[in-house]
Every structure is written in structure tokens, then in C-alpha cells.
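Quick illustration, no need to memorize.
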Amino acid sequence: MKTDVLSIDSKKAGSIDLDDGIFGLEPRADILHRCVVYQLAKRQQGTHKAKERGEVKATSKKWGRQKGGGGARHGNRAAPQFRGGGKAHGPRVRSHAIDLPKKVRRLALKHALSAKVAEGSLIIIDEAKLADAKTKTLVEAFAKMNIANALIVDASVDENFGLATRNLAGIDMLPVIGANVYDILRKDKLVLTKAAVEGLEERLK
């Protein structure tokens, strides 16, 4: 499919052909959901920990008679029912990551890109470079393109452009190698440079 390319000044700078096998698919919510769950589970730290019965330092001496006390026959203060005792089946340090085949992850990225095209939220620019790292320049440029919440992807992040976007709330920038389903879907718009389109097509073919 043919799409217009804009300059950073919101002027037409030609057109580009997008691969229908990457940008023209019918988005599948089930594949996108699986990939988002995979990403969020993988980033979860899993460092939560509570001491269990065997890890609590407490007396294990039987403090009452076997019979006649009128209560249960306890012999360990580390039992979960006592104050200061261990947690029964408490959280342990572990990985929350789940498996997802590489083919499914690649397919999910294609569907995420296609979803942005389908909803009209994909913008192609010729390049993402600035002579000076001035946030004001980008604010004015993004206002012309009606961009307030977006992910910008380039082949490699230009230093001045990266510094200028760092102060803008709602604007994130990633290199092609870091493009992922979750970050694409959570932003209102996706801005790709011509170099990013070439990089993504090379990565996903």
C-alpha cells in the first residue's frame, strides 16, 4: 500500500510503499493479547517474599500440657496462626515469565503495526533529526501534525532528537530493535521514519 511521507514541518515529502504482509493484515486481538501478557509477565520482578514457618526464629518447645489445657496441643510458636509466626503459603521469589513462541511474537508485532494502519494512527516522516536539541521546535512540529501521545521509531535514535523528546510527556522514542507490541499499542499514534519502515520490514520478513 502507498502512504504519504511527511517532513518534520508537516509538509509532504513524497510517498512510500508499505508491505501488505506487515502493515496490511486484519488485526487479531487474541494474538495481540497473548503478546502483551507475555511482555508484562516477563517484566514483572517477582522479588516479593514472606517468611514461612521454617524461616521464622521461634521456640519449638511445647509450652502446655498435652491434656487439660482447654485448647489445641501446640508445640511451635512459628505456626501461622500465632502472632509473629510464618506466613502459610506466602509469596516466594520467582520468575513470572511465560513462554511464547518467537513466531507468535513476530506475528503479534505485524498485527500491532497493521492495527495502527487500520485505525489511521500511523504517521510516516522522512527523518527524525534536529540541528539543535530544542524541545520547543518539536512542540511546534507535533502541534501541526496533531501529535500529543505517540511512539516514535527510527533506525537509530538521533541524539538531539532524543534529548528534545525526553521532556515531552506522552512522547516516547525507540530504535527499530526496541520496537515492541506493548509500547506500540499503549500510544495513540505511531510515528515511523522511512529508515524505521525499512528496518521493520527487514526484521519481520
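Residues 49 and 92 are 5 Å apart (CA to CA).
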